[in-house]
Amino acid sequence: MNPQDQPGPDPGSGGGIGLSNRLANPNRARMLVVEDDPRSRKLLEGYLLGEGYQVRCAPDGPEALELVARQVPDVVLLDVMMPQMTGHEVCAALKAHPRTRSCQVMLVTALDSLPSKVEGLDTGADDYVTKPVRREEFLAKVRALLRARRLLVDLEDARAELAARNDELQLKKALAQSLVHDLKNPLAAILGNLELLEMRSGSDLLHLVQRSKRGADRMLQMILNLLDVERLEEGRLQPEQKRLNATTLVQGAVKDAEASAGQRDVTLVAEADGAVKALGDVALLRRVVDNLISNAVRHSPMGGEVRVAARMRAEGVEIAVVDSGPGVPAAYRENIFDKYRQIDARNSNETANRGLGLTFCRLAIEAHGGTIWVDDGPDGGACFHCVLAAAEPEGDEERTAEPVLAGHFEGGG
Ligand SMILES: Nc1ncnc2c1ncn2[C@@H]1O[C@H](COP(=O)(O)OP(=O)(O)OP(=O)(O)O)[C@@H](O)[C@H]1O
Ligand SMILES: [Mg+2]
Question: Which domains does the chain have, with CATH numbers?
Answer without folding.
Answer: 3-164 (3.40.50.2300), 240-388 (3.30.565.10)
